[in-house]
Amino acid sequence: MRHDLSIDIDPACLEPRRQRLAARQHGRYTDRVPVGFCLVPRYFAPLHSVAYRELFRDAETQFSWLLRFAQYRIERIPEDLFCAGPVLGIGPYFDNVLDSEALGAEVVWPENETLQACPTIHTVDAMERFQIPAPDRGLWGQLVDWCGRMRELAAATRIRFGHLEGRVEVSAPAIGGLSPHMIAVDLVGSDFYWWQHEYPDACHRFLGKITQSLIDAQRHFDHVWPRPSRTALGLAEDSAQVMSLSDFRTFCVPYDRRLYETLAGPGGQRAMHMCGQSTHLHPALVDDLAIDEFCLFGYAVEPQTAARALGGRMRLWGNINPMLMLQGTRAQVYEAATSALQALAPCGGLLLGDGANVCPGTPLANLAALTEAAVAYGVPAGMAASAAG
Fold this sequence. Notes:
alpha/beta, TIM Barrel, 5-stranded parallel sheet, 3-stranded mixed sheet, 16 helices, 12 strands, globular
């Protein structure tokens, strides 16, 4: 074996986690609300004294570190989302620059900061000349190569969850989940916001090309890495919170809808992520996009507000303030989690978590406080999984 990993965990805890997540899909709960975090490699790198840029040196280096990060997470952080069975999912990770780089953005690779996509389009004429790239360009091509290499490494990896033998599964290559509008802002910069008003037709053509390029890329991935038909798609609209509802419906909704309809298919699950204050955009999530899950929504949205606008219409995942989780006391985090549970759990289908992105340095005790609050809160009246029939 090239890698041999023994994870110190009681395998008996895995099945209850799976059951909590399965019940949530139907708007119910088993023994408590499930808990899950947005914990990405930048959280774990300092804990292992490794330079963040080292993770991107080659596929085997990243695979090795992802295994170690996963072991740390499973052994030390009580949650339901990451490990709900004797299978460890691993896949190439490129922060949020995968799609933007493939479409032409310049990427900065800092020593110990997240990767940054920098604009390369500075005029409307340059935007109009944008051509749809080949689906194996740049990081898209590297993604496929790294998936293949990691699959070889997974086959040469032994992993045990306590006394239970498990396995490592490598995720299939997929687009990164940034919306066409987010990618447009990565490629153009903040000028894209006023270009939308001064040159709307050009912006629509640009967004259409980006959307088509994402569809082409995903179809390419599906061809080179066959798998069952996709039935879900998640998108992020972090660049939209500064837009009005009208502008969001004009410059975001049509392209998001096309991706959902094309890549998730009829009846497929539609997930959306938004950092920041998104309350004014919620009507579009319900009425225009028919979102099934609002993932890691920003802490600026009060839980009571989310419950009124979205509760019962979609599953919710969030939304404790990451800065409170980083800097607050365990008691303060527990109180915030309890407040979120009281507001959101009765809506059904809640996954309690951060809102959004756990900061490096966040104490383990503050992460555990969310699960402690969920255990103490239990199950809202009428929301037990057995009531689903």
